[in-house]
Design a protein that fits this description.
Layout lengths: L2 H9 L75 H4 L4 H10 L16 E2 L5 E5 L4 H6 L6 H12 L8 E5 L13 H18 L3 E5 L1 H8 L5 H4 L3 E4 L2 E6 L2 H6 L4 H18 L5
Parallel strand pairs: 2-3, 2-4, 4-6
Antiparallel strand pairs: 1-3, 5-6
Length: 280
């Protein structure tokens, strides 16, 4: 067991530490989730089944996070909506143009109450892509995905399998604006925003995508998904393997499922090792 990883997880109140079952030299039980207190969470939870309409899988984006020290912009008054996102136009954009397009987007009603859009963050040539549902309050204020309690848990989860935010990892959401009261994005909102996510994936070309929660999985796979039945399987998005697991916000409210999420991450790590020829 990596002492540094243990220290990181203990500092975040996530001990006993998750441990990999069945790995030579590193065998142990998954950490006991009973000791984890679920703090209030501002992220969007796992949602009822929603299926986004099929969108050209050749479109995809990336972001430039705002500096944390910059003052958060004030909430904007209701914005007049613009026409739907042009998937063909988005499909030809590079990172800078795409980021500006996301920040200025008014294609659905989520733009009306946001402080700012949240494009994504991380390594733009990453092997790992984690896709969540949508920004929460802290993400809306800071312009970066997964920076609240759920983000801290996600960082700990990644650290436990030897990866970290920004280092061969990119993090994005299915919708780029915070849904009011952190509700689940509606079908039209998921469909409106999907060309941006698709363009991000096309630009990154990750080796593996980890879908965090049902809305992310359903948007990527364009089908109804239940996490319990999807776990332990590899799906496909435009030739890229997709592993499905629980959203960190859900795990904060349901800590007994953290052991299952750990198993999913171990499965993802094994799949990445296979894709990388045993290098991971």
């Amino acid at each position: 067991m990596n002492a540094r990883r243990d220290s990181i997880l203990r500092e975040m109140g996530l001990g006993p530490i998750w441990r990999l079952r069945g790995a030579p030299g590193d065998e142990a039980d998954a950490f006991d989730p009973a000791n984890e207190q679920a703090p209030p969470d501002t992220s969007v939870e796992e949602a009822p089944a929603v299926v986004a309409p099929v969108v050209d899988a050749q479109v995809r984006p990336r972001e430039q996070p705002l500096r944390a020290e910059s003052p958060a912009p004030a909430p904007q008054p209701a914005r007049e909506r613009s026409p739907a996102v042009n998937a063909d136009a988005v499909g030809g954009m590079g990172w800078d143009e795409l980021t500006q397009e996301i920040l200025a987007c008014k294609a659905c009603r989520l733009c009306e109450q946001r402080r700012q859009a949240v494009p994504g963050v991380g390594d733009r040539q990453a092997d790992w892509l984690f896709v969540g549902e949508g920004p929460g309050a802290e993400e809306d204020a800071r312009g970066e995905p997964f920076v609240g309690k759920a983000g801290q848990l996600l960082d700990a989860m990644m650290s436990a399998i030897g990866i970290k935010r920004g280092d061969n990892v990119y993090i994005a959401n299915t919708v780029k604006c915070r849904p009011p009261a952190n509700r689940t994005p509606e079908v039209e909102e998921l469909a409106a925003c999907f060309p941006y996510l698709a363009r991000q994936i096309a630009l990154i070309r990750p080796r593996l995508i980890v879908a965090l929660g049902r809305p992310a999985a359903q948007s990527l796979l364009n089908t109804d998904i239940r996490i319990a039945s999807a776990r332990g399987k590899c799906f496909d998005y435009d030739g890229i393997p997709v592993v499905v697991t629980y959203h960190p916000a859900y795990l904060l409210r349901n800590p007994m499922d953290k052991a299952k999420a750990w198993e999913d991450l171990c499965f993802a790590r094994r799949e990445m090792a296979r894709l990388a020829g045993g290098e991971n």
